[in-house]
């Protein structure tokens, strides 16, 4: 059970995650026309393209970033055995991975192919992030179902698994930030959108929300685990020198 100083961090993570979900939903639903590059009259094919373009930020932010962040925090608040926590963590990360893959597919669907869309820093970072995340999930899946490895091997791998997990999560947030900047720059230069219009305010607020959320999630993940006073006293007495 989450106790001590971690509780405020978990609360802030949930509030900021909810804010991010609301902002990306408002942006995707209320400003649908911004996700389509053509200005001609709409056709069924164009309407379908808009739908897939709108699904991209929803699945990448809500499905990939928010769910993977919740999976990171599972060990901080979920009661029960370590096996239960690992299984829930693995399932949530699997949902996040599926959402990320589908989100990338929606971006390329109906366009000129992957190569034509693979040109920006945002796309390069996104591909690297998905590959790292998939490799992390595969390693976690294999280690969960095959526990015959020695204890020392698992202890050596665990710090790297935690580091790569937090690194990939931070990379996902950074990739989302570059995507927001790329889209906002396109709208302001190609469509002469005002820099202080409601859509610009929503996108900038979404970027700030993601930056705040990632900091809270990572801080909660690396914060020392809470120990009750009795356990702290027992640990301290064990460290005291003993008379021979």
UniProtKB/TrEMBL annotation:
<dbReference type="GO" id="GO:0016020">
    <property type="term" value="C:membrane"/>
</dbReference>
<keyword id="KW-0479">Metal-binding</keyword>
<keyword id="KW-0560">Oxidoreductase</keyword>
<keyword id="KW-0349">Heme</keyword>
<feature type="domain" description="Cytochrome b561">
    <location>
        <begin position="12"/>
        <end position="222"/>
    </location>
</feature>
<feature type="transmembrane region" description="Helical">
    <location>
        <begin position="157"/>
        <end position="181"/>
    </location>
</feature>
<keyword id="KW-1133">Transmembrane helix</keyword>
<feature type="transmembrane region" description="Helical">
    <location>
        <begin position="125"/>
        <end position="145"/>
    </location>
</feature>
<dbReference type="InterPro" id="IPR043205">
    <property type="entry name" value="CYB561/CYBRD1-like"/>
</dbReference>
<dbReference type="InterPro" id="IPR006593">
    <property type="entry name" value="Cyt_b561/ferric_Rdtase_TM"/>
</dbReference>
<protein>
    <recommendedName>
        <fullName>ascorbate ferrireductase (transmembrane)</fullName>
        <ecNumber>7.2.1.3</ecNumber>
    </recommendedName>
</protein>
<feature type="transmembrane region" description="Helical">
    <location>
        <begin position="7"/>
        <end position="30"/>
    </location>
</feature>
<keyword id="KW-0249">Electron transport</keyword>
<keyword id="KW-0408">Iron</keyword>
<feature type="transmembrane region" description="Helical">
    <location>
        <begin position="201"/>
        <end position="222"/>
    </location>
</feature>
<dbReference type="GO" id="GO:0046872">
    <property type="term" value="F:metal ion binding"/>
</dbReference>
<keyword id="KW-0812">Transmembrane</keyword>
<dbReference type="Pfam" id="PF03188">
    <property type="entry name" value="Cytochrom_B561"/>
</dbReference>
<keyword id="KW-0472">Membrane</keyword>
<feature type="transmembrane region" description="Helical">
    <location>
        <begin position="87"/>
        <end position="105"/>
    </location>
</feature>
<dbReference type="GO" id="GO:0140571">
    <property type="term" value="F:transmembrane ascorbate ferrireductase activity"/>
</dbReference>
<keyword id="KW-0813">Transport</keyword>
<feature type="transmembrane region" description="Helical">
    <location>
        <begin position="50"/>
        <end position="75"/>
    </location>
</feature>
């Amino acid at each position: 059970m989450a106790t001590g100083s971690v509780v405020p961090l978990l609360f802030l993570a949930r509030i900021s995650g909810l804010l991010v979900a609301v902002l990306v939903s408002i942006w995707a639903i209320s400003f649908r026309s911004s996700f389509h590059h053509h200005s001609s009259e709409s056709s069924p094919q164009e309407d379908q393209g808009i739908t897939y373009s709108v699904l991209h930020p929803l699945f990448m932010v809500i499905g990939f970033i928010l769910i993977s962040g919740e999976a990171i925090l599972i060990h901080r608040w979920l009661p029960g055995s370590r096996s239960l926590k690992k299984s829930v963590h693995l399932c949530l990360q699997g949902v996040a991975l599926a959402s990320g893959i589908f989100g990338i597919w929606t971006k390329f669907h109906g366009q000129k192919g992957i190569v034509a869309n693979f040109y920006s820093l945002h796309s390069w970072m996104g591909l690297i992030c998905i590959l790292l995340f998939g490799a992390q999930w595969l390693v976690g899946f294999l280690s969960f179902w095959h526990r015959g490895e020695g204890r020392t091997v698992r202890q050596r791998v665990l710090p790297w698994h935690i580091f790569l997990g937090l690194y990939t999560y931070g990379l996902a947030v950074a990739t989302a930030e570059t995507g927001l900047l790329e889209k906002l720059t396109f709208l302001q230069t190609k469509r002469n959108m005002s820099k202080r219009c409601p859509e610009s305010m929503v996108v900038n607020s979404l970027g700030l929300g993601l930056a705040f959320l990632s900091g809270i999630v990572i801080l909660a993940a690396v914060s020392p685990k809470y120990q009750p006073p009795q356990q702290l006293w027992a640990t301290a007495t064990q460290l005291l020198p003993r008379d021979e």
